[in-house]
């Protein structure tokens, strides 16, 4: 039985108990969420990898993507980025390598980290086909499924697949007159293969085969969105919504087969459409966990898109997105450095926390309240501990403060907390007496 089938049968598994403790809730609530399909547990056959739960009522999670893209990229270089992602407390990782020793890279990641790892098997299938046939256009459906199973067998926790990118959706996109027709790397290559070979998407036509592999290895199926908008002007166009409608039907089939499933989303979404985007996914996909890229509410944040993503990510999380894929300062203009990865994770973690506070998550609210008390009491050590980015906060404080016990450098002797705080507390005490 898969973990979804066990949840439906009323069984509370070790993984449910583990994630419940991390979330600070009753394991029965986790079981109910998994059974309903509103929570997924990302887990692995690897003993070094600890499960992570994603979904309704839980902390909003953050994922960091790395991988060998450039000709001179190395495993060591990508592992340095992963070190920074782990240091910044990303909840999960994605290895999206498209070239080089991809198998070795994946094995290195899976055997090193302690958190779930996701992949997009099509990337390696394309690289393999190029080497084997001389062109990625000559890859076969069997090649795609063989690679998918290889990744699942290796212990990957979630597999990203473009199951809803059909010929009807492609034709719809062609009619839409999009400004940025395709921005999904995997989606664009799959579509190119479909058009060249005049055939339908195998992940759609042979969906039962997809589910068979996912069930065999009890891996979470993560629907990638081939039609995610690449600019805010294309947001919520017919092609994007058409694909989402298809994914909603595939979600139902996955659950019926005992396979956990979540849905990946955009992308570039203007502020006024973020609520609609999240609610539409939740409605069409039966409350399946929503894994959003950003969201990016403006196209003009190049060089600072970790900030852009944090703005949109906070709003998306507030309206019900469950999982944020980080965005780095290098988004749209280059590959991220290790420092970019750290900044991207931190920005997304701030967004996730802000969304959780807005949603009324008790632990998130308690965290901010404790920080407020620490500030009132000028307890600098506790403030540093409670900061989302403790390291950066501590560095700034020590570099720019002259008195480490009474006030910060911004106000100095005129510290409002110091001057007025005692007066207000004394007044309040007298009033209570």
UniProtKB/TrEMBL annotation:
Pfam family, one: ThiC_Rad_SAM
EC number: 4.1.99.17
Record has Zinc as a keyword: yes
Keywords: 4Fe-4S, Iron, Iron-sulfur, Lyase, Metal-binding, S-adenosyl-L-methionine, Zinc
Superkingdom, natural source: Bacteria
Cofactor: [4Fe-4S] cluster
Keyword Cell membrane: no
Name this protein carries in UniProt: Phosphomethylpyrimidine synthase
Source species taxonomy: Bacteria, Bacillati, Bacillota, Clostridia, Eubacteriales
Gene: thiC
């Amino acid at each position: 039985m898969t973990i979804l089938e066990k949840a439906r049968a009323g069984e509370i598994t070790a993984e449910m108990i583990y994630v419940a403790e991390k979330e600070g809730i009753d394991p029965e609530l986790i079981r109910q969420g998994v059974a309903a399909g509103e929570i997924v547990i990302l887990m692995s056959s690897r003993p070094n990898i600890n499960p992570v739960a994603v979904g309704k009522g839980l902390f909003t999670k953050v994922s960091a993507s790395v991988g060998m893209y450039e000709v001179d990229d190395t495993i060591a270089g990508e592992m340095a980025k992963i070190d920074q992602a782990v240091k910044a407390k990303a909840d999960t990782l994605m290895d999206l390598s498209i070239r080089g020793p991809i198998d070795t890279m994946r094995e290195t990641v899976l055997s090193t980290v302690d958190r779930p790892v996701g992949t997009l098997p099509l990337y390696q299938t394309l690289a393999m086909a190029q080497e084997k046939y001389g062109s990625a256009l000559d890859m076969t459906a069997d090649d795609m499924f063989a690679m998918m199973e290889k990744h699942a067998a290796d212990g990957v926790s979630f597999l990203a697949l473009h199951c809803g990118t059909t010929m009807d959706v492609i034709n719809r996109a062609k009619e839409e007159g999009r400004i940025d027709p395709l921005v999904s790397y995997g989606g664009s290559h799959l579509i190119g293969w479909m058009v060249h070979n005049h055939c339908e998407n195998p992940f759609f036509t042979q969906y039962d085969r997809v589910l068979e592999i996912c069930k065999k290895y009890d891996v979470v199926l993560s629907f990638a969105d081939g039609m995610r908008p690449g600019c805010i002007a294309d947001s919520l166009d017919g092609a994007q919504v058409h694909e989402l409608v298809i994914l909603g039907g595939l979600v139902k089939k996955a659950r019926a087969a005992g396979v956990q499933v979540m849905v990946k989303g955009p992308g570039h979404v203007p502020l006024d459409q973020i609520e609609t985007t999240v609610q539409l996914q939740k409605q069409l996909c039966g409350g399946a966990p929503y894994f959003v890229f950003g969201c990016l509410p403006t196209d003009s944040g190049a060089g600072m898109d970790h900030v852009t993503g944090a703005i949109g990510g906070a709003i998306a999380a507030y309206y019900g997105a469950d999982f944020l894929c980080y965005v780095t300062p290098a988004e749209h203009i280059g590959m991220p450095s290790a420092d970019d990865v750290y900044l991207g994770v931190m920005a997304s973690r701030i967004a996730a926390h802000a969304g959780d506070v807005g949603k009324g998550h008790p632990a998130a609210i308690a965290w901010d309240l404790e920080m407020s008390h620490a500030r009132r009491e000028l307890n600098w050590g506790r403030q540093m501990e409670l900061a989302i980015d403790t390291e950066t906060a501590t560095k700034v404080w020590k570099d720019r403060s002259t008195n480490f016990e009474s006030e910060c450098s911004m106000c100095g002797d005129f510290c409002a907390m110091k001057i007025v705080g005692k007066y207000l507390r004394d007044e309040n005490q007298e009033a209570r007496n």
